[in-house]
Amino acid sequence: MGKKSAVYILGAVLLAGLFLIGRHNYLLFHSISELFSIIVAFCIFIVAWNCRQNIDNNYLLFVGIAYFFVGSTDLLHALAYKGMGVFSHAAESNLATQLWITARYLESFSLFIAPVFVRRDIRIPYVFAANGLFLVLILLSIFYWHVFPDTYIESSGLTRFKKISELIVSCFFLGSVLQLYRKRRRFDTQVYRRLTASFIISIFSEIAFIFYTDVYGISNFLGHILKIASFYLIYRAIITTGLIRPFDILYRDLKSSEQTLRENESRLKHLNETKDKFFSIIAHDLRTPLVSTMSVFSYLRDDGDSMSDEERMKLIGEVQTSTERTITLLDNLLDWEKCQSGDMICRPEKYRFKDLLADASVTMERYAHNKSIEIVVHVQGDIWIRADGNMIRTVIRNMISNAIKFSHPHTDILIEIEKKNTMAEFRISDRGIGIEPENIEKLFLIEEHFTRPGTQREKGTGLGLVLCESFIRMNGGDIRLKSRVDKGTTFIFTVPLA
Questions:
Q1: Of the candidates 261, 166, 251, the residue with the CA atom closest to the CA atom of residue 204
Q2: Which of 40, 94, 329, 374 lies in disulfide reach of 231, CB 3.0 to 4.6 Å?
């Protein structure tokens, strides 16, 4: 026989036993059922109070304090029940029912607002004071001022106030289910299911208590059976979990903390590697053109008089190219650093793609002309996008520059723009040297710093595509490429349509 089967059989036996006790002596049945819920309520408080230093959430603590007052009120209800003879009161059924509805209001409202304190600090004295003040005022209104509305009249049964109150309490329990559902990811799955089941059963319990006409009747009996089931599930969710598996109590805070720590450790390691590569780029790629420039200036200083104008202009051209490359590298480094630190803010506005393309490609025309490369543009209609204009211009310039760099002279580059659902798709295709499949992923990783010379030995910074990917992601788009060695490459990126 399985463990679950044994539990079900035991539950059925206990239920049958309670039914027989109720048929023989209803007062004894009521005392047993209320005593069970009272013990569970006080146990919840004890566990919550003693676990308060070891858990990071305050849901359990808030519920535990509330259940101390719920259990106290249920105890008064049990003592005031008709036939107990503890209180000398003219209408014992009314008194017990008044205390019952007080306990249910306190329980349901506390469970309804408890999820608010999942990640919020609470002031324990204030919670005690609020619950205590509520209970004291209610007890004074019942026992001293006699202003609490009647809930049961011997001649006619339940009052309108009692029935409406049960409906309000049911609404609070339903709200507790919805609140719990919203926070379900912060709860252990088993705990969440048991708490939800407990609250739903409590709703049916309250409904049963709307229809009884006799405090010893079958509807009253069914309501108490459902209450026992509800408190048993709360017991299983909080007491058993808190004592036997404390790491699962309501949230998996410790598990989450460990996972977060591992993720942060991995991220820190990655950032450290990226930082090392970043400084390596600065040390190598900035130093090389500066050394080259110094050499040219030294050569001009020492042998400039003996050079021809053609040689002198050639050296000046090399200095200009080196300086332009250094400026580009510095710009890319600064932009990439801003992206990583969060200082780079994306400010999307409405632009016509054709205008951004014209702005970005104008600086590339001389480069393409020098290699005898023709740029052909095909635009599908008048396409408007919503993006950060400066970022998209930077992306387009890098894409065109790459296409020219790796294209053979006397070829063409095709630029296509079209709509794809809610996105604008930009494609730039060249008929250049292409790239090997195993190297494609490296293009977008700064730690790889993958760079290759162009068809005329042009040098790159290794940062352009890394920066492009960051910009496109920030604008809500995607970037990818298709390439075949010695056949050419097509870069594709998307941005949202306006």
A1: 166
A2: 40
pTM passes above 0.70? no
- Distance CA(232)–CA(228), nearest Å, equals 6
What pLDDT does 244 receive?
58
Residue 121: the pLDDT is: 83
* Per-residue pLDDT at 374: 87
**CATH code for the part of the protein at 346-498:** 3.30.565.10
Give residue 298's region: left, alpha or beta (phi > 0; psi -120 to 50).
Answer: alpha
Structure tokens at 413: 């580059």
260-344: CATH topology is: Helix Hairpins (1.10.287)
DSSP 348: -
Q: Give 223's Cβ-side CA count (13 Å radius).
A: 23
State how far the Cα of 213 lies from the Cα of 381, in Å rounded to an integer: 77
Cα dihedral value 422, 428, 429, 433, nearest 10: -130
Beta bridge partners of 230: none
| CB-based burial label for 418 (10 Å; 0-12, 13-18, 19+) | middle
CB neighbours of 10 closer than 8 A, spacing ≥ 6? none
Neighbours of 396 (CB within 10 A): 23
Positions in the chain whose pLDDT score sits under 50: 90, 250
Q: What is the DSSP letter of 117?
A: G
Are residues 118 and 186 in contact, defined by beta-carbon separation less than 8 angstroms? yes
Q: Are 477 and 421 in contact (CB under 8 A)?
A: no
pLDDT at 283: 56
Residue 412 and residue 428 in contact, taking contact as beta carbons nearer than 8 Å: no
Q: What are phi and psi of 384, to 5 degrees?
A: -110, 135
* 87 within 8 A of 79, measured Cβ to Cβ: yes
In DSSP terms, which residues pair with 484 in a beta bridge? 488
Interatomic CA distance for residues 35 and 41, integer angstroms = 10
Q: What is the pLDDT of residues 252-292, one digit of tens each?
A: 555 566 677 777 777 777 666 666 656 655 555 566 566 66
**Residue carrying structure tokens 């890319």:** 332
Side chain identity at 194, as an amino acid letter? R
Cα–Cα distance between 454 and 456 in angstroms, integer? Answer: 5
Structure tokens given for 349: 């506005």
Q: Residue 227 has what pLDDT?
A: 92
Q: How far is CA 198 from the centre of its chain?
A: 27
pLDDT, position 90: 47
> Cβ–Cβ contacts within 10 Å for residue 61, how many?
20
Residue 9: predicted pLDDT: 81
Q: Are 389 and 497 in contact (CB under 8 A)?
A: no
Q: What b/e sequence results for 168-201 when a residue is b if at least 16 CB atoms lie within 10 Å of its CB, and e otherwise?
A: ebbebbbbbbebbeebeebbbeebbebbbbbbbb
* Domain at 3-251: CATH code: 1.20.1070
